[in-house]
Amino acid sequence: MDFQTHISIRNLSVSYGTQQALKNISLDIPDRKITVIIGPSGCGKTTLLKSLNRLLDSVDGVKIEGHIYVDGEDIYDPKIEVTHIRKKMGLLSQKPQVLPMSIYDNVAYGPRIHNGLDKKRLSRIVEDHLQVAGLWDEVKDRLHEPASRLSVGQQQRLCLARGLAVEPEIILGDEPTSALDPQSSQNVERRLNELKSEYTVVVVTHILRQARRIADYLAFLYLGELVEHGPAAEIFQNPRDLRTRAYLTGEIS
Amino acid sequence: MMNLRRRKIEERIFRFFMVTSTVIVLGSLLLIIGAVVVKSLPALKLSMITQTPKGGYYLGKEGGILNAIVGSLYLAGGATLLSFLLSLPIVVFLNVYAKKSSAFATWTRFSLDVLWGVPSIVYGAFGFIIMMFFGLRASLLAGIITVALLELPIMTRAMDEVVRLVPGSLKDASYSLGATKLETAFHVVVRQSLPGIMTAVLIALGRGIGDAASVIFTAGFTDNIPTSLLQPAATLPLAIFYQLGTPFPEVQQRAYASAAVLTLIILAISLGSRLLVGRFAKHRIK
Fold first, then answer.
1. Is the pTM of this model over 0.90?
2. Which among A61, A89, A146 has the least Cβ separation from residue B176?
3. A245 is a domain residue
């Protein structure tokens, strides 16, 4: 499998106080593919994901070393505007976190901040992205109801629409289906599969079957170390490292 | 078997204490309102709330307490507004800008807690010193500033407690869309905690409108309704204080009438806020 690199992580180390969460990680994340990061809980998966959009910055006592290049730009360069980096990435969190406003305003939030568009274009954007997230038909008659009234599965798709509305290049998912029922999970997975033709997708998961279903590229983290990475099919068939093999067969979890 | 019986008795004893305490609290509220209303009945006339004191008022003759009603509303309203304008930035700073482990934030919270406990007469004296320093006379303005200082720690800490409950993941959701801290603070954090912020403002307003000691030197007292910030202003708590201090039973009855009016205003504020809070809570994420 050949691919172009979209995100390039170089010698990334992260520690919280005295506890080291990531140890010297270097990884190339392919453009317009689904990269899945797997590993047992506490292995640093979420830390790695949050380092990509610099949400890690606001954590108390965090120390970040190394470089991450997105489109050739070092996102930890002090001259870089952090909002500019984040605008490039939409985030789906473990538990969908809708904003305290209406369904419509949730999607319009990003575009309003960044562009200050007129009503007509804004409505267009909201509709388009709710369509792409597969939510439009369910909410088109109640766009101005509070977003918190949606079911959890609908909320996660709303978060997807909201993230897409800022026109990112990258979609980050932090165990995006862990709070959802099987049907909603499937729905979200399907969306991600559709979206990879246009977006680079990075998903953290602890569900191996999900990784098998959606991953093009796989990275296995264990105790803060990047043990193995490569095309998903290869790793699943023939893991090189013993620890990867043990994880894939369920011996460590 | 014995054990079960013992536990049941325990249960009964504690239930008794809980019910007793609750009854005492509710009972005192009813007693206060009852006493004030009964004592004020002879003086409760429409003229009490529609007229300022007329000739012979302090001998129990003509007029009402409109001066104190309007003065109190002006004073508490102005002070609450001023206090809010100071509180909100502090709360946003503490919860959005400062790091959780920030020593500055910890000290700010601690200072506010200490200020909360400072008796209001001390605020009055402090306000008086500031007034003298700027060459101000006892006036609505000086009263507003003093009461605003009194309300500030109450409002700020009450707001802080609710804004602190906004989950970090909600802020992260806003940040990850490329929002700045300020945008996150006002579009998300404040919005999410709006009902609590409202409650905090009203708690402070209630405290400010009912306080006598902080305004005794600073706002002065007058029989007229103030028409400018630099004129002295009457307040209901002080009206009660002065009226009770007269030797005339008729005027003392008026003190209870003033108290009834003050209690009613506070009651109206509480009820109004309950209604408003429900409305503001519409978009809140539970």
1. no
2. A89
3. yes
